[in-house]
Amino acid sequence: QHNDRVAVIDDKNNQYKYSDLTSFKNDFKSKIPARSLVFCLCKNNIESLIGYYSFLENKIVPLLLDVEIHQDLLDSLVDIYKPNYIWTLTSKVVESQKSNIIYNYNNYSLIFLKSNPPIKMFDSLALLLTTSGSTGSPKLVRLSYQNLLSNATSISKYLSIDENERPITSLPIHYSFGMSIINSHLISGSTILLTNKSVFSPEFWKFLKSKKPTSISGVPFTFEMLNKLRFFSMDLPFITSITQAGGKMNLNLTKQLAEYCKKTNKHFYVMYGQTEASPRITYLPPKKSLKKIGSIGIPIPDGNLSLVDSNSQIIYENEVEGELVYNGPNVCLGYASKIADLGKEDENNGILYTGDIAYRDSDNYFYITGRKKRFIKLFGNRINLDYVQQLL
Questions:
Q1: What CA–CA distance (Å, rounded) separates 298 from 15?
Q2: What whole-number distance in Å separates Cα of residue 150 and Cα of residue 146?
Q3: pTM
Q4: What is d(CA 154, CA 280) in angstroms, rounded to the nearest whole number?
Q5: 158: closest CA among 274, 53, 283, 342?
Q6: Residue 142: phi, psi to the nearest 5?
Q7: Which residues have a Cβ under 8 Å from the Cβ of 207 and sit 6 or more positions away?
Q8: Model pLDDT, residue 136
Q9: N or C: which end of the chain has fewer CB within 10 A?
């Protein structure tokens, strides 16, 4: 129903309608059989977005990776999962007897890996995302079509996203938060302002002021940088909402951002999630952003949260800490660590033990106090310390 609307405007001022996305989808359909595995090496550019969109629409299963991934890590993942295809920058393609280019668009090429046999995958498997941003761990999150659609629908509902929204991409597509912004706006007929420039770049601000986005999103590191750039003193009336996720932000900065949004009549949403939840789990309504500073808020629509003690018994009392457990249609199918795991069915049945320790206040708002397992978040990327230790 959005065919005639503009889906994407990039920082080169190119415009692509939703009907153009359908044309790209058909191009890929003629090149790749359904249920193939493709590595999609992403930048925030139109080539990555049309690849991601087309793969999902054609029931082709992509693993989203950073286009800047180290070659050794990429080779290791190719060796483990044996993808049928790779969609990447043409400049990164090394032609050999084992591969050949079968499609080009702009500066991206689709490589067919002739040596890899077809892969048996679970019918509902839609997408693979890495669990760790930088270590190249082979552990992947297996997401279904229902996972992605339900979470995108919930997000668009609580953020009141419609066809008039214009988000600017300040986060990578291959990162679950960045991906969810793409998903929730595409299903709403919005126009995505697509740029690979960082918030430190003058080109980013030129693009922002020219195209007037209605929203901007970031992880704590993003807002630390924006604070240094005097963002809170900028006159940006066209931005009506700001969303933050990807880890707990400094409480003083959270308060500063909430006060800025209140003063400038913007909606400020603190959100919590995990890649395993496609990825959003909770949100803090803007009207509570100052009253409930430090809270991750309430469950997203169609989701439910509970707390359990060390014996897995449900905690009903308020102000008592326990492990945060989420239940919803957006909970992933499970993990993959090897190629055979891609054929596994749903192992979670909609229940996610988050590994986060939290408590609930008397208004049923949740607060995270620590981690049950050894993870840290740096710049929005989740790092498994046990895996780092193994590497060392």
A1: 37
A2: 6
A3: 0.93
A4: 9
A5: 283
A6: -100, 115
A7: 11, 168, 193, 195, 197
A8: 61
A9: C
